[in-house]
Design brief:
Blueprint: H1 10-26, H2 39-48, E1 64-66, E2 69-70, H3 79-95
Antiparallel strand pairs: 1-2
C-alpha cells in the first residue's frame, strides 16, 4: 500500500475516504462509526478503553505470514525503518531475561 509518490493527490484520497466513511456510517445494522482522527485522539480512545495488550517476548525478524512466506526483505526499500527495527530488536534481545 503506497509508495513514494502514491498519495500525491490528497483531494482524491480524501474524497474516496469520505465515500467509505459515509457508506459505513449509513449502514444501520453496523456497530461501526468511522471518523477522521489524529494519532493523539486515537491513542486517548485506546487508553480510555482500558484494554490489556499482550507483551511481545520474541524478536521481530524474520516475520512469517505463512509457513513459507518470510518477509525478511520487506523493508529493503525503506532502510530507515529497517534500521529502527533492527536496533529495536537488539534492545529487546539485550533486555530479554531469558537470554541471561
Amino acid at each position: 500500500m503506497g509508495e513514494d509518490f502514491h498519495y500525491q493527490d490528497a483531494h482524491l484520497w480524501f474524497k474516496n475516504l469520505d465515500k467509505l466513511i459515509n457508506y459505513v456510517n449509513a449502514k444501520e445494522d453496523s456497530n461501526l462509526n468511522l471518523v477522521y482522527s489524529t494519532p493523539s485522539c486515537y491513542l486517548k480512545a485506546v487508553n480510555d478503553a482500558n484494554l490489556t495488550w499482550p507483551t511481545k517476548n520474541d524478536d521481530f525478524f524474520p516475520y512469517a505470514s505463512d509457513p513459507n512466506s518470510y518477509w525478511t526483505g520487506y523493508f529493503t526499500s525503506r532502510p530507515t525503518i529497517k534500521r529502527f527495527e533492527r536496533v529495536g530488536n537488539n534492545f529487546l534481545q539485550v533486555l530479554n531475561p531469558g537470554w541471561s
